[in-house]
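Throughout our pipeline, every protein is held as a single compact record rather than as scattered files. Nothing more is needed to write down the fold, since each code stands for a local backbone conformation. The record that follows is passed on verbatim for readers who wish to inspect the format.
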Amino acid sequence: MNDANNDSWWLATLGRTIVWARLREREAGTAEVFDSDGTTLPYDSMDTARAALMDAEFVEFDGLDEDDALERGFSLGEVSPPSARHDDALRGLMVQQLGRRA
């Protein structure tokens, strides 16, 4: 099974800082969230994991349009979910500092 096919990316913003989280659906219907600390948090279902992310003020990246992004302080053209071959390398990419606005 290719886990990347079951991944969705979520983000939260604080000023010009974006904090990423990866939500992954597991084969058994459970879920896990890889967070910005490099911790993988298990959940009993996708719904529970989504609710936890929303409670922490994360939004799903694929659900954003340009207006949503601008309200959060960035343009969709400025950001994309982090990518690395292994979670160890991904950990350092989970917090993204955006450049200053003119």
